[in-house]
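User: Can you recover a sequence for this backbone? Please restate the input before giving your answer.

Assistant: Of course. Working from this structure:
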């Protein structure tokens, strides 16, 4: 005797979620027909952005259509017992995949990070922990360089500010006060953006002579890296863009490089310091021998910091507005 097992009901999906996905799929189909008659780079880029949503929606719709057809097969009196059993098992298997397909569809509808396709700059600074924190910065820098090498990400050390007077006589490890690593591969920001924050380590440092455990910290800042001549969507020359910096708002100081460097140091005015007056943001670069290259790198770092700062300010304003709306919605009789 074969017992027919009816499948459980498919999970209820949000009508607004499916509606958004269907509207996006309609736009994708419209742009696909448009590009067949005349090629446009922006349209092709937009199609590529909408394709994951369209594919996820098709997978979800195909699964639901399959369940509907199999249920009709079960309701048909002429279907034999063996085919009914196979259809019931197929319904259960397909229904179990529906939550995963719906979650995948929901994730594709999340707006992408506007900086996701850009290269990035990693800025590492020591925190609490004294000389051990500077050594920890060096460990983090080498870790990120090794990670980039393993993932075939092109990395360049833009700035390295180390303290030559703070080498441990026991380990000869150099303390790093600041390091900026540029990962020039497109999409590197999306890969490394979650590394931003405070990193902490508890260990017996190389500078410790009595075997005590120390706690040290270092801060990692991940910034989008913009090319000198950005694409049209970055709008470097548009005053309303997050990427625009007025040259009149930036004070440029030219000075001689400091630190180790042989005959070049203290002989030429190659170091550049840029100060964004409205935000008091300061960027100083002296690693290259050429003043032009140092100026180019300094503007790149400054533009990244200002763009990130403006984006964070806009997100904070949205969060405050959301909290204020929720506060009004929860207002009771005692608040009148």
């Amino acid at each position: 005797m074969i017992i027919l097992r009816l499948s459980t009901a498919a999970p209820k999906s949000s009508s607004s979620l499916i509606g958004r996905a269907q509207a996006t799929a309609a736009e994708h189909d419209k742009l696909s027909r448009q590009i067949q008659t005349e090629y446009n780079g922006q349209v092709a880029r937009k199609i590529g952005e909408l394709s994951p949503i369209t594919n996820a929606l098709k997978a979800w719709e195909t699964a639901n259509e399959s369940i509907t057809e199999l249920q009709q097969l079960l309701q048909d009196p002429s279907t034999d017992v063996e085919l009914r059993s196979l259809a019931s098992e197929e319904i259960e298997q397909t229904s179990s995949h529906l939550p995963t397909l719906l979650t995948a569809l929901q994730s594709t509808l999340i707006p992408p990070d506007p900086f996701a396709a850009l290269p990035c700059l990693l800025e590492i600074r020591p925190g609490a922990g004294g000389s051990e924190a500077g050594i920890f910065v060096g460990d983090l820098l080498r870790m990120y360089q090794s990670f980039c090498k393993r993932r075939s990400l092109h990395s360049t050390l833009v700035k390295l500010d180390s303290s030559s007077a703070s080498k441990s006589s026991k380990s000869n490890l150099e303390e790093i006060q600041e390091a900026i690593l540029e990962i020039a591969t497109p999409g590197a920001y999306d890969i490394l953006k979650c590394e931003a924050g405070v990193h902490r380590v508890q260990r017996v440092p190389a500078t410790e002579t009595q075997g005590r455990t120390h706690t040290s910290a270092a801060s990692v800042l991940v910034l989008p890296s913009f090319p000198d001549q950005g694409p049209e969507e970055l709008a470097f020359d548009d005053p309303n863009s997050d990427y625009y910096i007025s040259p009149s708002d930036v004070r440029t100081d030219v000075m001689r490089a400091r630190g180790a460097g042989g005959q070049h140091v203290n002989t030429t005015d190659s170091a550049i310091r840029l100060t964004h007056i409205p935000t008091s943001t300061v960027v100083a670069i002296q690693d290259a021998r050429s003043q032009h290259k140092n100026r180019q790198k300094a503007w790149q770092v400054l533009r990244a910091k200002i763009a990130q700062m403006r984006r964070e300010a806009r997100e904070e304003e949205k969060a405050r507005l959301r909290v204020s709306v929720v506060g009004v919605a929860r207002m009771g009789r005692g608040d009148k």
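That completes the design. The longest strand covers residues 214-224.
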